[in-house]
Amino acid sequence: MSALLSVADLMADFLAQPPQPPQPEPPLPQVPPADVVSTGEAVAFWVLGPLALAGGLGMVFARNAVHSALWLVLTMLSLGVLYMVQQAPFLGVVQIIVYTGAIMMLFLFVLMLVGREASDSVVEVLRWQRLSAGVVGVVFAGLVVSALAGALTTVDPLGLAAVNSTGGGNVAQLGRLLFTDFLFPFELTSALLITAALGGMVLGYTDRRELRRSQRELVEARFRGDHDRPSPLPGPGVFATANSVATPALLPDGSVAPESLSEIIAPRERASLERDEASVAGALPGPDAHALVPPLRVTENPHTDRDRTDKGEL
Amino acid sequence: MTPSYYLLLSALLFTIGAAGVLVRRNAIVVFMCIELMLNAVNLSLVTFSRINGGLDGQLMAFFVMVVAAAEVVVGLAIIMSIFKTRRSASVDDANLLKY
Asked: DSSP for A136-154?
């Protein structure tokens, strides 16, 4: 009886109220709108992603180590811009400054110290190593890419727009996290940096084993026979009338001192030195020291102007 | 496209770095390949941070950068000291501990 009454009351209420349109469902309050990849970001990705890949491949395939470092710089710059595109402006700037600016320059410094020409040897210590490494790389890439593509295509990214727009932005939020939730790892980082600095100093320190020898000790060592000859090698042009490096030194009897021949510069032909030898041997009249006029030209001299240019007569 | 494309790029870069470590013989180039792998992991961390909507991934990438800087200092000092004693930067020549 009471149930019938209540039903009658409900019907009376329903008839009394005007019919209302169905209310739309209110959105769930905790779920932010999904992150949408804009067209500009897609363009940036399709430009910078292949650039980063090209940099990596160039680093692996460049024969010269300096070229490898420069290719890696290209990759790191592309990745830094990609970080900025991905709502991580602080990390993008740190990537460009620290990685590209500091670490890669350190690599280049060490390359200059070690020797740029120290390129890879083409000898394979393990047989088929490069081929198998390439096969392993391709298989690994296929495996990881297919797994990621299968697992993550249906994931809706939340995006960082809400986080980056509150609490002072990306940098302030990162700093807050760093000094609250990640304080202990941050302190461990300082210990790591101190250890690395100490390690760099210890490994880079070179102890000079023997003191530098004085001039007297060098002379004594020379005459004791520690060197090939007691005197230094005759310089080019000693006893010769030209001071060109290509001119060999002449001994007092007019012969060419063989030790003065430079290995780098091709020595003159013997025929072009006949006049020098003759003048050293005293067969030619020497230049008049008191004459203010140019010396007499020897008419039977077969040499050309080039030879006299060497002697400073012209 | 979705942000998971960044993860594919990161996987490819990591693979290039790993193959470079296996292929190259110059110790400094091997070291640069390791740096490339660290960078690839950083890219995936930044992408995960974006997907999850929090900044923890970015902070993790920041720590990776700090560790990489310390590692580069010590590693390059080791390479330099090996070069000073053996006059070579090839990983095949540092074989005193082999047998």
From this structure: HHHHHHHHHHHHHHHHHTT
Neighbouring residues of A26: CB distance < 8 A, sequence distance ≥ 6: none
- The phi and psi torsions of A185 (rounded to 5 degrees) equal -60, -35
Distance (Å, rounded) from C-alpha B73 to C-alpha B4? Answer: 33
Contact A276, A268 (CB under 8 A): no
Range 22-81 of B in CB contact (< 8 A) with A: 22-26, 28-29, 31-33, 35-36, 39, 42-43, 46-47, 49-56, 58-59, 61-63, 65-74, 76-81
3-state class (DSSP) for residue A256 = strand
Place of tokens 């939020």: A173
Tokens of A92: 């993008």
Instruction: Confirm if A130 and A124 have CB atoms less than 8 A apart.
Output: yes
Q: Taking CB atoms and an 8 Å cutoff, what residues of chain A touch B59?
A: 174, 177-178, 182
Q: Which of A54, A38, A44, A37 is nearest to A80 (CA)?
A: A44
C-alpha closest to that of A275 among A266, A284, A267: A284
CA distances, A187 to each of A94, A102, A172, A183, A184 (Å)? 19, 22, 19, 6, 5
Per DSSP, A277 falls in state H
Q: What is the mean pLDDT of each run of 10 residues along chain A (314 residues)?
A: 60 62 59 72 94 95 90 95 92 93 91 71 77 93 90 80 84 92 94 94 80 85 82 63 68 74 65 74 69 57 48 45
pTM: 0.68
As a whole number of angstroms, the distance between CA A2 and CA A283 comes to 152
If you ran DSSP here, which 8-state letter would residue B26 be given?
B
Query: How far apart (Å, rounded) are the C-alpha atoms in residues B36 and B42?
Result: 10
- ipTM of the assembly? 0.94
Alpha helices, DSSP H, located in A115-181: 129-152, 161-164, 169-180
